[in-house]
Amino acid sequence: MLSQKAKYALRALIMLAEQPGDDLVLIADIAERENIPRKFLEAILVELRKAGLLFAKRGKSGGYRLARTPPEITFGEVIRLMDGHIAPIPCASKNAFKPCTDCEDPATCSTRWLMIQVRDATADVLDNRTLADALRHRQSVGELPANFDI
Fold first, then answer.
1. Helices (H), the chain
2. Torsion angle in degrees (nearest 10) through CA of 139, 71, 56, 10
3. Which of 25, 64, 71, 87 would suit a FRET pair with 16, their CA atoms being 20 to 30 Å apart?
4. What does the CA dihedral 79, 82, 84, 86 come to, rounded to 10 degrees?
5. DSSP helix/strand/coil, 148
6. Cα first-last separation, the chain
7. 65 pairs with which residues across the strands?
8. What is the pLDDT of residues 86-138, one digit of tens each?
9. What is the CA radius of gyration of the chain?
10. Is the entire prediction scored with pTM above 0.85?
């Protein structure tokens, strides 16, 4: 399940992706527009900056903007950064494998077999959808003007 932290990170990044050029946005503006608690948002933005997804500038004319273009930031990257892994159960994880306590043999477990397929299908979608795709979706449903440059 997607954590609230990951949802807030995605909302903040999509909002920043909508900004023209190199415009910087204040934390307070992101928090208000996206209805995200400011203290929680501050911690999320620090993580996103440390991971190289955001550029931050301190001071009077400071704020945040994307460090990479919207087509370069995938949903999968953000979710893994915030939540750690996307596997529905720990024994299906590629990077955080942990056998279930009630499982006798993970290699023959049919539940694990199925959850690995779920993990792979989910990863395929998340790793092939970017912030630019989210902007195109918003544009198609009328949330962004038709002449908005993606």
1. 4-17, 27-34, 38-50, 75-83, 110-126, 131-140
2. 60
3. 87
4. -20
5. coil
6. 29
7. 55
8. 999 999 998 888 888 888 888 999 999 999 999 999 999 999 999 999 999 98
9. 18
10. yes
Q: Are 71 and 132 in contact (CB under 8 A)?
A: yes
DSSP 8-state symbol, 101:
T
Three-state DSSP at 99 gives coil
Which tokens sit at 80? Answer: 């893994």
Task: Count the neighbouring beta carbons within 10 Å of the beta carbon of residue 118.
Answer: 14
Gap between the Cα atoms of 120 and 81, Å rounded: 17
- Give 46-64 pLDDT, tens digit per residue: 999 999 999 999 888 889 9
Tokens (6 digits) for 132:
């630019």
